[in-house]
Each structure stands twice: as structure tokens, then as C-alpha cells.
Amino acid sequence: MLPLYADHGTETAGETLKILQAEHRKLRHDIASLMQRTEQLFKSVDLPGSTLALLSDEVEFKNLFHHHVDREQKVLFPQLDERAAEEDREARLPKE
User: What would you measure as the largest C-alpha separation in the chain, in angstroms?
Assistant: First the structure.
């Protein structure tokens, strides 16, 4: 949907395609890192410290994720609904 967002001139300051794509990359990277660190947690020589550090990073991830989803729901999706035809939006969805 992001290229469609840019194609229809719906980008605004702070809501550009580049910013949203960068957030998607960061979220994918962070979730992979959190999963890896969770799997390795019990190999840690400092289990309590490693657990607290992981929890702290999970809170940071959660906050970014909620902020990102909120912007998509309040800005990106409503603007796409207003400016992009339903056929255009459906054509961009992955086929099952």
C-alpha cells in the first residue's frame, strides 16, 4: 500500500513513503533481534540483567509499533480511502 500512498499524493510532512518504509524496516529488524535474544536468553551469564535489558527493548519496540500503527490508521489508511479507488487498493494486495 505504501507505493500507492505516494502515487496518489497523500504524503505529508512526517508521513512520507521514505519514513514509513524506514519504520517498517526497523520494526522487522527489531522483531528479529528480539526473537534471537529471547532464544539465547538462558545462555546468558547474567539472566536477570539480560532479561531486564530484553524487556526494556521490548517496551521500546512496542511503543514504536503502536505509534506506527496509530499513524497508519489515522493518516495513511483514511487518505488512501479518500484518494485511491478501491480497485487500485485491492490490486496492490497480495493474492492468496
Answer: 56
Per-residue b/e over 58-77, b at no fewer than 16 CB within 10 Å? eeebeeeeeebeebbeebbe
Tally of CB atoms within 10 A around 2: 17
pLDDT tens-digit map of 50-93:
999 999 999 999 999 999 999 888 887 787 777 766 666 666 66
Q: What is the DSSP letter of 75?
A: I
Q: How many residues comprise the chain?
A: 96
Distance of CA 86 to the CA centre of its chain: 23
pTM above 0.90, yes or no: no
Residue 64 grid coordinates: 514504536
Q: What are the tens digits of pLDDT across the range 63-73?
A: 999 999 998 88
